[in-house]
Amino acid sequence: MSFQEQIHDIAQLACIELFTPKFEESFWFFHDVLGMTPTEDDGKSCYLRGYEDRYHHSLKLTRSDKAGIGMVGWRASSPQALERRVAVLEASGNPGKWVEGHKGYGRAYEFTTPDGHKQHLFWEVEYYEAPAELKSKLLSRAQKRPLRGVPVRRLDHVNLLCSDVTKNGKFLQDNLGFLKRENVVFGGSDELAAWFSVSPLVHEVAFTKDQAGPGNRLHHVAFWYGNQGQMLDLADILQEYDVTIEAGPAKHGVSQAYFMYVYEPGGNRIELFGDTGYLIFDPDWKTLTWDESNFFNGGGVWFGGELPQDFFVYGTPIVEAAMAEAETKDTVAEPAE
Question: How far apart are CA 273 and CA 266, in angstroms?
Answer without folding.
Answer: 20
